Amino acid sequence: MSKDKSARPIGSPVRLSIMLGLMMVMALTLPRYIKEGHANQETLGWVVIAVLALVSLLQWKLLDGEGRSHLKPLLLTLVGCMVVGLAGVMLYKVIAGGAVLSVMTLSQGATAGLLLHAVALLLRKRR
Questions:
Q1: Where are the transmembrane segments (predicted)?
Q2: pLDDT tens digit string along 41-80?
Q3: Which residue, among 106, 66, 78, has the nearest Cα to 19 in the 3D structure?
């Protein structure tokens, strides 16, 4: 059987970094649901995290050596974007006069960070 050189690999470090970021967002959203007593949303959050963990493991196994080496810089970018997202939300809360550090701020900051990471990856791909 000949391998088609134009076929894209199934495992992707970019896809894996987005999934890990989504797991972080979900994990930082769970305390909000616990605090507010939303048991159904909390349970659904745990289920989503478990499914993402399984799919992330599959993606990791499908990555070749080159893909795995590209993952570390992507994860550093993800963490940086999460920090910038959290700082941006905290700055907004200071200006708007809300609670600067709360479970809501962590959830919103993580979401903003993941969105920033995805946009940065999209812009990097277009160059």
A1: 12-31, 43-62, 74-95, 101-123
A2: 999 999 999 999 999 999 999 888 888 899 999 999 999 9
A3: 78
Q: Which of 85, 81, 76, 77 is nearest to 106 (CA)?
A: 85
User: Number of structural domains, the chain?
Assistant: 1
Single pTM value for the model = 0.84
Contact 115, 85 (CB under 8 A): yes
Interval 8-18 mean pLDDT: 83
Q: Largest alpha-carbon pair distance within the chain?
A: 65
Q: Residue 5 falls within a domain, yes or no?
A: no
pLDDT tens string 26-41: 999 999 999 989 999 9
Task: Determine the structural domain holding residue 82 and report its residue range.
Answer: 13-126
Tokens of 78: 């993800």
Q: Is 7 a member of any domain?
A: no
Residues near 32 by beta carbon (within 8 Å), at least 6 away in sequence:
103, 104, 106, 107
